[in-house]
């Protein structure tokens, strides 16, 4: 059907809506308008054009245009704006040299006076109508439908434009397109093209599992291709999917199709052709069943049925759900399944198990080849194809030369045959593509590489086993009796193996042949990371060997990145940190790291973050020790990473605490680190990187960079405050303190002691906190470390307050205020005021406590501190509670609570709930008090067990008032035990509650 010729003067034009909105003017070549693209303006102006073209050649009223362009959200001056758009469009569409334009104003509206067939939308619908005319033969119908579908230039019309009217029109056109695709398939099935349709239909049924018409077409194509079992299997899957998703049975037409296939009718029809609207009812008629024959000089002997699969392992364990899913996919006609994963993860074992389980679905046999993709000499596709052809009965003399000729013959011989091809240990998609069987065959591929470029494949990224699966495999090899007595140590063994099946099998096999070994002994042997890889070898099996295969294929830059990434102690690493470690820009770093992910030597669980499997990390580290030119290169890489963390964490500290001088006293990193848009993104980064930052501190403590480690801890003190990372923060502080003490660095030791004291105070170990602060003070004064000295004074004052030593607390608070003020550190000065307010609250000096808290709060508000503002409001609320101003106090607590949530300070959030409970009791609101006390116990609080005991005391008071005296006494007993263990001043109060000397 020739393309229309529409003229504007001497110009020809074409309007394209089925994709990006375009107008082209110029000469027509082979039915398409070539030449210049007409500039039609911005998105809203293009919507106006579509609104006119939808009724090309007909008047569209102004009201219709406004509705189509804006919907119900039309602005007040919509008509004026519309006229402006129309004027611009009129000029844009005027042909060169004539001044005329097809866009004109008519009574009541506007018309774009062009032949509708110059608009691809109308031409699409015109072609569909022609294809469905009665009497149109299938060949012509197929041609018309193909031409109609060929007009589409993308997945959706009017790409990038969005209004309610367009959305409705887009949905309608998308439905028409899907119906046209189904009509085309019906026509091609009637023409006997069933074999050529199989791959496309398999993909479409996967994408649209509830489309019964599509399902009927696929089933019919399978049956006519000689795959009756596959056709029936797919019908069963459709029945199951319809029941699970919609709760319905298949349509009568689909059920009838199943019965005809069961009776082995030679010419069944799908019975599901469209009969809606003006679309004619078509029947799938087939006069004979067509079978394609291949003519070669010496054809393959049809009786040969290859059965080349190696034996599956008899003790296959775990992965039951995955194995069942893959078996189902194999038997349902999925053309390619690609299983990727790290060496030793069990790809081959799984593939063989699944292939054997699905064996009956492939009566024409199974081909198998190990492609040696991880070796220095991977199998050549040409050689493999020669082997496959001979296995399929082609004589040696009839095997053609060249990979393309062999692949063509192989596809022809395998087309339409239920044949399974297992391509094991592939290097990449390029090696695999020539070895894929023809339509109707199925390939199962295993590889360390993730072959995303292997089209039409179902991809499986095989992970290590789960803990229970791993334990089951270990037990099955070793034997139940030897494991039963030491289940916990068996769990340690499989964890040390990183749940990697190969490592578990090796460890279990070693123990199985050594009757005097115990599970505990094996666990102890594997506990030493330095010897673990050496332990994981038995006979010719060794974990190191399988990793070495992948490592040996790396290019120089990949191998360097692999080694240096293995040197890092963190659980994972971000792209930015990796760029710093490698000394490369982020783009180059991403390229090399993603290439390691592609070959399964690295994992990427979330975009931009990467990690090693535990055993691969040990291997990478061993290669770094063996292959790096010198230790200097490894040390330089770690130093670059530490500098990056220090620079970025210091930036976060400065953003979160504007005006605080702490950062000025820290080492200055030689790099800039990351920048952030604001506080939220800065804090989000800090908490996301928490484990990595603290692991870096620990790693630095073991080198001569312990001074940097001390400063990195100081900058990351929010992690100590949070509760979620407090234990790891404390371990790092201990390590830095010990390293600095051994080296005689007084300043680094003092700073580490301050951070140790800080986290000990937060956990309620006040004696330890005071001892650490006391040790830090003379060290700080010895080396004139202003930062360490002021914080040591500050911490000692905090401890004195909670321990009831108020004179000492006030003395140190005033010294801390003086030290912070002398340093120009206004935020820390404000903190000292707030903490002094705590002392005054404890002493009953209510008005001065309110004044001090407000003084600190004003400073924080001026500087814009969120978390410190929350602290100040917390103190102010306590003072207001003491003054009996409960409503004001609760308002301050509520603001404080929101701020602590925003800054991810869980311990302070819990503390606020605990203090709110005390205020609510004083306000005679026991039910609300109980609620907040329980929240505090769930979240935990600053002060650890001491604060927990205070919260239990308040909870008991609330419960007693609410008429639950037994529960109240249980709370008080727990609180008394905690206070007595610590010699706390609150012991007497709780004792009096328990023996009735004090009223709740």
SSE arrangement:
Layout: E1 7-8, E2 11-16, E3 22-25, E4 28-29, E5 32-33, E6 36-37, H1 43-53, E7 59-61, H2 62-70, H3 78-93, E8 103-106, E9 109-112, H4 120-131, H5 138-150, H6 164-190, H7 194-207, H8 212-224, H9 228-245, H10 252-262, H11 320-331, E10 336-340, H12 347-357, E11 366-370, H13 381-391, H14 403-414, E12 420-426, H15 429-432, E13 442-447, E14 457-461, H16 467-478, H17 480-484, H18 487-496, H19 501-512, H20 519-527, H21 529-535, E15 537-538, E16 541-542, H22 543-552, H23 556-567, E17 573-574, H24 575-582, H25 586-598, E18 603-606, E19 609-611, H26 614-627, H27 631-656, H28 679-688, H29 690-701, H30 706-715, H31 717-722, H32 726-743, H33 746-762, H34 766-782, H35 786-802, H36 806-822, H37 826-842, H38 846-863, H39 866-882, H40 886-902, H41 906-922, H42 926-939, H43 944-961, H44 965-982, H45 987-994
Parallel strand pairs: 10-13, 10-14, 11-12, 12-13
Antiparallel strand pairs: 1-2, 2-3, 3-6, 4-5, 7-9, 8-9, 15-16, 17-19, 18-19
Helix pairs in contact: 1-2, 1-3, 4-5, 5-6, 6-8, 7-8, 8-9, 9-10, 11-12, 13-14, 16-18, 16-19, 18-20, 23-25, 23-26, 24-25, 24-27, 27-28, 27-29, 27-30, 29-30, 29-32, 30-32, 30-33, 32-33, 33-34, 33-35, 34-35, 35-36, 35-37, 36-37, 37-38, 37-39, 38-39, 39-40, 39-41, 40-41, 41-42, 41-43, 42-43, ...
């Amino acid at each position: 059907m020739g393309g229309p010729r529409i003229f504007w003067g001497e110009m020809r034009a074409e309007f394209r809506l089925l994709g990006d909105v375009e107008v082209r003017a110029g000469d027509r070549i082979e039915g398409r308008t070539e030449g210049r693209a007409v500039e039609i303006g911005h998105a809203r102006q293009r919507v106006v054009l579509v609104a006119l073209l939808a009724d090309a050649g007909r008047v569209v009223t102004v009201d219709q245009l406004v509705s189509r362009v804006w919907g119900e959200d039309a602005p007040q001056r919509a008509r004026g704006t519309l006229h402006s758009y129309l004027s611009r469009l009129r000029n844009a569409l005027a042909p060169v040299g004539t001044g005329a334009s097809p866009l004109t104003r008519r009574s009541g509206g506007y018309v774009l006076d062009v032949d509708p067939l110059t608009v691809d939308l109308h031409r699409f619908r015109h072609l569909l109508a022609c294809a469905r005319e009665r009497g149109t033969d299938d060949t012509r119908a197929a041609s018309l439908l193909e031409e109609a579908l060929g007009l589409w230039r993308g997945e959706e019309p009017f790409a990038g434009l969005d209004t309610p009217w367009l959305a409705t029109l887009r949905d309608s056109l998308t439905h028409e397109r899907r119906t046209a695709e189904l009509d085309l398939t019906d026509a091609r099935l009637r023409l006997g093209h069933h074999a050529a349709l199989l791959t496309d239909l398999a993909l479409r049924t996967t994408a649209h599992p509830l489309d019964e018409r599509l399902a009927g077409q696929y089933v019919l194509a399978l049956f006519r291709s000689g795959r009756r079992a596959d056709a029936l299997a797919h019908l069963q899957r459709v029945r199951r999917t319809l029941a699970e998703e919609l709760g319905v049975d298949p349509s009568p037409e689909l059920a009838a199709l199943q019965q005809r296939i069961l009776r082995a009718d030679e010419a069944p029809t799908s019975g599901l052709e469209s009969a809606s609207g003006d679309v004619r009812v078509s029947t799938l008629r087939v006069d004979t069943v067509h079978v394609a024959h291949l003519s070669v000089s010496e054809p393959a002997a049809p009786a040969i049925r290859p059965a080349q699969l190696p034996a599956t392992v008899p003790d296959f364990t775990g992965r039951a759900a995955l194995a069942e899913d893959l078996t189902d996919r194999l038997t349902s006609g999925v053309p390619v399944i690609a299983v990727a994963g790290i060496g030793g993860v069990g790809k081959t074992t799984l593939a063989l198990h699944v292939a054997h389980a699905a064996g009956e679905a492939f009566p024409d046999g199974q081909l198998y080849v190990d492609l040696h993709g991880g070796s220095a000499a991977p199998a050549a596709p040409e050689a493999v194809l020669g082997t496959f052809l001979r296995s399929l009965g082609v004589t040696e003399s009839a095997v053609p030369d060249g990979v393309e000729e062999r692949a063509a013959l192989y596809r022809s011989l395998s087309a339409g045959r239920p044949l399974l091809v297992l391509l094991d240990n592939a290097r990449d998609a390029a090696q695999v593509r020539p070895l894929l069987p023809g339509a109707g065959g199925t390939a199962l591929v295993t590889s360390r590489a993730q072959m995303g470029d292997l089209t039409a494949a179902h991809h499986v990224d095989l992970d290590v086993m789960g803990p229970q699966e791993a334990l089951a495999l270990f037990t099955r090899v070793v034997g139940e009796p030897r494991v039963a007595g030491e289940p916990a140590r068996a769990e340690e063994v499989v964890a040390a193996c990183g749940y990697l099946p190969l490592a578990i099998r090796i460890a279990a096999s070693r123990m199985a042949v050594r009757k005097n070994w115990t599970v505990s002994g094996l666990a102890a042997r594997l506990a030493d990371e330095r010897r673990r890889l050496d332990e994981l070898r038995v006979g010719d099996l060794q974990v190191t060997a399988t990793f070495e295969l992948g490592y040996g294929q790396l290019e120089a830059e990949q191998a360097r990145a692999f080694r240096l990434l293995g040197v890092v102690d963190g659980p994972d690493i971000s792209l930015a940190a990796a760029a710093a470690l490698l000394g490369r820009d982020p783009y180059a770093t991403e390229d090399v790291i993603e290439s390691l992910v592609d070959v399964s030597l690295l994992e990427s669980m979330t975009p931009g973050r990467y990690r090693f499997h535990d055993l691969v990390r040990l291997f990478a580290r061993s290669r770094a020790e063996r292959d790096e030119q010198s230790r200097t290169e490894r040390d330089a890489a770690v130093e670059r990473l530490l500098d990056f963390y220090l620079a970025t964490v210091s930036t976060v500290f400065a953003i979160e605490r504007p005006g605080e001088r702490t950062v000025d006293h820290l080492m200055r990193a030689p790099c800039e680190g990351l920048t952030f848009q604001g506080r939220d993104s800065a804090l989000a980064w800090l908490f996301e990187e928490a484990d990595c930052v603290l692991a870096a501190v620990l790693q630095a403590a073991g080198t001569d960079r312990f001074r940097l480690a001390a400063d990195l801890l100081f900058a990351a003190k929010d992690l100590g405050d949070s509760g979620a990372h407090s234990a790891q923060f404390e371990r790092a502080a201990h390590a830095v303190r010990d390293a600095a003490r051994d080296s005689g660095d007084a300043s680094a030791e003092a700073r580490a002691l301050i951070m140790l004291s800080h986290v000990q105070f937060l956990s309620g170990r006040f004696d330890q906190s005071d001892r650490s602060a006391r040790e830090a003070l003379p060290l700080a004064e010895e080396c004139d470390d202003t930062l360490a000295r002021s914080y040591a004074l500050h911490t000692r004052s905090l401890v004195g307050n909670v321990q009831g030593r108020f004179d000492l607390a006030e003395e140190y608070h005033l010294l801390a205020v003086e030290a912070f003020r002398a340093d120009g550190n206004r935020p820390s000065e404000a903190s000292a005021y707030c903490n002094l307010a705590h002392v005054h609250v404890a002493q009953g000096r209510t008005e001065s406590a309110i004044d001090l808290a407000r003084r600190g709060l004003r400073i924080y508000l001026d500087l814009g501190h969120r978390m410190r503002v929350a602290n100040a409001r917390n103190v102010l609320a306590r003072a207001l509670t003491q003054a009996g101003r409960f409503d004001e106090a609760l308002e301050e607590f509520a603001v404080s609570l929101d701020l602590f949530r925003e800054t991810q300070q869980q311990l302070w959030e819990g503390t606020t709930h605990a203090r709110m409970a005390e205020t609510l009791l004083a306000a005679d609101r026991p039910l609300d008090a109980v609620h907040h006390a329980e929240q505090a116990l769930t979240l935990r609080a600053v002060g650890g067990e001491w604060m927990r005991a205070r919260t239990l005391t308040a909870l008991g008071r609330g419960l007693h008032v609410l008429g639950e005296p037994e529960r109240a006494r249980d709370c008080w007993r727990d609180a008394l035990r905690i206070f007595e263990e610590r010699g706390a001043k609150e012991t007497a109060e709780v004792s009096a509650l328990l023996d009735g000397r004090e009223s709740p």
